[in-house]
Amino acid sequence: MQDSKKNPFELENGCTLWEIANQEPVVNKMFNDAMVSSSCLFNDYIVRYGDNIFKGIESLVDVGGGKGVMAEVIAKKFPHVRCTVLDLPHVVCDNPNDGIVKFVSGDMFNYVPPANAVLLKWILHDWSNEDCIRILRRCKDAIPSREARGKVIVLEAVVGLTSAMISKEPQLLFDMLMLMVTEGEERDENDWKYLFTKAGFSSYKIICTFGFSSIIEVYP
Ligand SMILES: C[S@@+](CC[C@H](N)C(=O)[O-])C[C@H]1O[C@@H](n2cnc3c(N)ncnc32)[C@H](O)[C@@H]1O
C-alpha cells in the first residue's frame, strides 16, 4: 500500500492494528478486553429492544464478534437464536467451542457463514467505503430474502442522530480515533444509505438510538 493511503497508526508502527494484535499477545488481549467492556455497555439495550429484533430469527452470525460477549447475551436471552461468532484466528483460537456460542475463525472479506441474520457491531467504522461494501456484500450472500426474515443488524453511530445533544461529542471523538488508527470513519445517515445501496440492499430502518450508537436493520 502507498504511504499516502496509510493511516497515522500504520505510518508510525509499520503495520495495521489487526496485524499488531496478531503478532503481540499483550496488544491482542488488551484490545479484546476493551471490546468486551464496550459490549457490556450495549447488552442492556440489546436485551431491552431485542424482542422485535430477534423475533423469528433462528440463527445469527456476529461478524467480527471478538470474544463473543454480545453473542452470548443474545443466545441466553433469546434461546431460539443459534449464535455463531466469526473472527480472525488469533482472536477466537483460545475460545472453547463447548458453550452456547459457536466460534468460527475466518476472514469476513472472503466468507460469512449462512444465517438468518448477521450482526455487525463496531465493524464498519474501521473500514473505508470500498471495504465496507465488500463486507456488506459477503453478509448479504449469507442471509436469506427479506420475506424469509433475512437482515443485517448494524450497531454503529449515526452521526448527528443522538438521543441527547451531549452524545455528539463522543461521535466526533470516535471519528478522530477511526481516522488515526483505521481506514474508517464515523458516518451520518446519508453515508450509511450510500453503503447499503451500493452493497445491494433494498432498504434499512434505524430502530433505536442510545448514547452515540444506533441499531440499524438492513434488508436484502
Ligand atoms: C472494533 S472490534 C469489534 C469487536 C466486537 N464486534 C465488539 O463490538 O465488541 C473489530 C473486530 O473485527 C475483527 N476483524 C478485523 N478484521 C477482520 C476480518 N478480516 N475478518 C473477521 N474479523 C475481523 C477484529 O479481530 C475485532 O474483533
General description of the model:
The chain is of the alpha/beta class and 220 residues long. The protein has a single domain, classed as Vaccinia Virus protein VP39 (Rossmann fold, 3-Layer(aba) Sandwich). 43% of the residues lie in helices and 21% in strands. It has helices at residues 8-13, 17-23, 25-54, 69-77, 89-92, 129-142, 168-181, 189-198, and strands at 59-63, 82-87, 101-105, 117-121, 151-156, 158-159, 187-188, 203-210, 213-219. The strands form two sheets. It has a seven-stranded mixed β-sheet, sandwiched between helices. The chain has a two-stranded parallel sheet with strand order 6-7. Helix 2 (17-23) packs across helix 3 and helix 3 (25-54) runs parallel beside helix 4. It is globular, with a radius of gyration of 17 Å. 34% of the residues are buried. The mean pLDDT is 89. Residues 18, 35, 38-39, 64-66, 86-88, 91, 107-109, 121-123, 126 line the site of S-adenosylmethionine.
Rg, rounded, reads: 17 Å
Distance between the termini: 33 Å
- SS field, number of helical segments: 8
User: Helix- and strand-based class?
Assistant: alpha/beta
Task: Give the biggest sheet.
Answer: 7 strands, mixed
Shape: globular
User: Order of SSEs, N→C?
Assistant: HHHEHEHEEHEEHEHEE
CATH class: Alpha Beta
* Relative strand content: 15-25%
Number of separate strands: 9
CATH H level, superfamily name: Vaccinia Virus protein VP39
What's the short story on this structure?
With 220 residues, the protein is of the alpha/beta class.
Features:
220 residues, alpha/beta, seven-stranded mixed β-sheet, two-stranded parallel sheet, globular, binds S-adenosylmethionine
